[in-house]
Amino acid sequence: MTSECYVYVTLPETTEPVVAARLKVxxxxxxxxxxxFVYGNSYLARPNCVPLDPGRLAVLDNKVKQYAGTSAIFPSxxxxxxxxxxxxxxxxxxxxxxxxxxxxxxxxxxxxxxxAFGLNSVPPAPLWQFNRTLxxxxxxxxSDALLKKEPVPDPIVAQQVQKLHxxxxxxxxxxxxxxxxxxxxxxxxxxxxxxxxxxxxxVEHAMLELALSCGLSASRSKIVDVGGRPVLFVKxxxxxxxxxxxxxxxxxxxxxxxDASESxxxxxxxxxxxxxxxxxxxxxxxxxxxxxxxxxxxxxxLISNVDDHPRNHALIADAGGWRLAPAYDLVPTxxxxxxxxxxAMVVGDQGRVATRDNLLTECARFGYExxxxxxxxxxxxxxxxxxxxxxxxxxGVIPADCEQIANxxxxxxxQWRDDIDADEAPVPVPNF
Length: 432
Ligand SMILES: Nc1ncnc2c1ncn2[C@@H]1O[C@H](COP(=O)(O)OP(=O)(O)O)[C@@H](O)[C@H]1O
Ligand SMILES: [Mg+2]
Hints:
Number of domains: 3
Order of helices and strands: EEEHEHHHEEHHEEHEEEEEHHHEEHHH
CATH class of the largest domain: Mainly Alpha
Distance between the termini: 59 Å
Bound molecules: adenosine-5'-diphosphate, magnesium ion
Radius of gyration: 22 Å
């Protein structure tokens, strides 16, 4: 069992990784897993060395840093590991479940952020070969087969395709995806799943566009047609193409930044106002980032994006320091309930409930005066209410799918207040 490795980082403004630290996983006398991390002296001697995260690994010294949590892997290093989808593929390739360190070691180098892991004191050369759009039909076919737990078609093709897939499995998340390069740079390519109830790629693309029109900083995206099936391409904000390769920005999830639990069973620190407070202390553009975060919460409430857990928010860092990353994974969730809807994280004084009133309770922590926040919410509400349908339709979402997701948008309870009788609330007028 592997229990030790080197941690490499691609430093800001460079394209080649260097050795930064060693990570060791061991058991204490009670049998708990403990992680030990130490920056290397050669790394500390570099004039341009940077901390790998703004939290547990923030201090650049040669003292051993210890971590014992649900796993022994420091949270910011865990952020570089694959989630459900990537693990499924790695397990298929390596035949069974691996330990946390092995998932890091066996996942390919296209992972989120600037880190890499290996057993050698010399870091591997940066990856040059990425999946190309041309290979997507094969990748889609294997993805379907893997999800249906069918044998992957033709064993020889299957082997090649697994290799291709391994060049794109380290990004997190549960949906099938890979990383693809085209003339514009690197993209996260998100596939349909056989059990999708509607056209997820086009709907997610439409939400990212709608977010932009509401003034959010959202990831750039486009739809690529692969043999008649849509694939959502989301431009990677942690990679920047330059003449001799890719610059890589360090990246941590809001799980790590908030020091929050991974699991929804413990939401103690799953909170937007708390995230705003933490941004105030760390983000190099904190005033703008906190306001951006507020618009994001309002938007999530208006489109019923209730999957807004802390792994769906991130921070990135270049040479200048850490800042809130653009929005991604924006997905509407239609629901029967018309009165209250809850987001995954605390919104305001009334907890997670996605209402106008609750959003306003803590607006000051995001840098908004009450009046300004109130007008902003009304403005965004009107944009979402009046344009979601046409945005979806103009980007190719069929009317039947629009109908299925319709009640995710500006649900009636968004405007209700505790003191208003539900019967008095305005009846929503369908938009189509
Ligand atoms: N535009 C992007 N640039 C860089 N990393 C991204 C981008 N979008 C998502 N990610 C990373 O990839 C992970 C998976 O993407 P996401 O859209 O959340 O997929 P899923 O729908 O499977 O949850 C995210 O948790 C985040 O770490
Ligand atoms: Mg996600």
